[in-house]
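Lab notebook: predicted structure, single chain.

Context: the supervisor wants predicted structures on file for every construct in the current expression panel, including those that have not yet been purified. This is the next one on the list. No modifications to the sequence; it matches the entry in the shared construct table.
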Amino acid sequence: MRRIHELLALRAAQTPDAVFLHEATGGTTYAALQAMADAAAQDLRDAGVRPTDRVLLVAENCPAHIALIMACSQVGAWSCGVNARMSPGEIAAIVERADARLCCFTSGASDAAQQHALRAQAVPSALAGVMRSPLRTQATTEAAEALADAAAIIFTSGTSGTPKGVMVSHRGLLHFGRVSAASRALTSDDRAYAFLPMTHIFGLGTVLMASLSGAASLVLRSSFSPADLLQALAHERVSNLQGPPTLYARLLAHLEEARRQPVFPQLRYVYTGSAPLDLALKQRVERLFGQPLHHGYGLSEYAGSVFLTRRGVARDDSAAGYLVDGGEARIVTPSGRDAAAGEVGEIWLRGAGLMLGYFRDPEATAQVMRPGGWYASGDLGRLDPDGALFVVGRLKEMIIRSGFNVYPAEVEGVLNRFPGVHLSAVVGVPEADGNEVIAAFVELESGATLDRGALQAHLREHLSPYKRPTRITVLDALPTTATGKILKRALAPPA
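Prediction complete. Output recorded below exactly as produced.
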């Protein structure tokens, strides 16, 4: 296969009547989803969409959103998914950055998308529940042969800066779909809880493409609710659960507040990614479900995970697993040499899933690409002698305090182990002398209060003096992206 829509076409041909998408309102079979994609593709052509045009999908998870992704593939256009809950200004900026030819809105499944459609003076499309904007005649196509394999542009979450348009390839998405499905041994008996936005690589690759590759089905949701997740685990045969660490932290908090235990008769695989994993949280989740919490390391620039833990290989640490098929990695020190086992350095990647670059941003692309086709991730990590990866933080987030390097993830791990702390985030705040103050933000468990004296004693026991936060601020809730990643750039100004 060379295009992602061919995978849906294969499933529709092999098992047309099998239900792929399970929702509260009913199910959508492979054949029905294929028919939706065909209708959407014809509508895009009729509207004037050409190969390599960018089609902005202002959407929340629903069958129409998946049909539009596949329709863009059929036409040769590049889908650019943006979460409908973004502000009008944010969406307008991405329309310009993507030089979008057309905007489609999943108005039938999302009130937010409906409001954006009205602002754009959109009209109904041939696909029920979807509206489309007037054609932007000034948009230009791409002629570069090197971009012929582009499938989508994914705009980075912007946790620490301005979002960039990652050009993801068909090859990368198809490859990672196979890798992810194999890592979980997915079959047609599996159902994955699919709340992660398919506007993000976690939802698009790990959930959608992997499930299509493994012939598994999706319990489709547009957002996350602990109560709904518990209902789905108990009654909708969910066998695969995937999400960022914040999903599990908030599920645990909900269970403690409600004083109940989950029922999960079919659950056999539990996974977290998108952010570093705190060991204390991992241990709590494993006690809750009585099985390993799998982990991985990936990013939009690599169309999914490059490292994954292995089924049947239990670990009592927070490793992000081992290199997957088709991926390569190096740990590189500031001097440019390969790090020794256990030594921290920047994670460099290359392989089948590597992006085609940042859309129309050669300067940003050049900043992260290295000789030999290596991508410098900006993430800091170390490799154990057995090849397991440990992610210790972001290069840009590393704090320099009194001449020492402080990795926020280490400090956050200590904070998260303190009784009553639900989540934490640590950032560095520059001082006039070039030093940095360590500022911590904590979100408490429901009903908890912070005993600052006891917390300081806890920090003294577990952290060297230069690693201890100078300021600790309690927030009602830490800001997060749509995928549950803590939005640290929103914390820096008040720090």
